[in-house]
Amino acid sequence: MEKTSLRKEFWLDGRVLFISTMFVIYTVAACLSLSLWSPVALVAGVVLFFCAEYFIHRYLLHPAAIKLMPSAIKGHDKHHDDPTNMKFLLTPNTYNVPYHGFLWIALILIWGNFYLASSMMVGFSAYHLMYEWTHFVSHRPIVPRTLLGRWMKKVHLLHHFKDPDQWYGVTHPVFDKVMHTDKLDLPKADQSKDKHASM
Predict the structure, then answer these.
(1) Do 117 and 37 form a contact (C-beta atoms < 8 A)?
(2) Is there a domain that residue 68 lies in?
């Protein structure tokens, strides 16, 4: 697949289109009344997704959480069973729609300000798009441009094909380091499920 086709596969996917649409809506809403706090709220949204990424993956999508979110973990298991299948590669809109909606409402109530809550959702949705792209790249024949991107692709594939209890981070390794789920000396395992496992 050529790079142009891969980009189209990603950006024209319904799940990405939903997140992108929400990003535009949040941005328009935030810009209706900008303040000195708007950049702070935006950064807070980025930090929220930055932190949530690891803990959702580790505690809600892996076996320990099967009784809490059985349908989510089944979908994640299918992704591990068939990692290149686009159907299971991105976060489904059955989760995207409610958590974007509920989070936006919750932030409006917490901030007590529609515009600052929208600014926070701008940062959250921007990072969400980056997360989905980074995960997509991990399972496609794309070499990331940055050293961090190449490292995260490598360790995400370790998570898939050597030890699913290590390397939960997709866009960054911070919490893997903090929580000691960052082992590199893992036993050799079959990588045949994903032809893009090696870069």
Answers:
(1) no
(2) yes
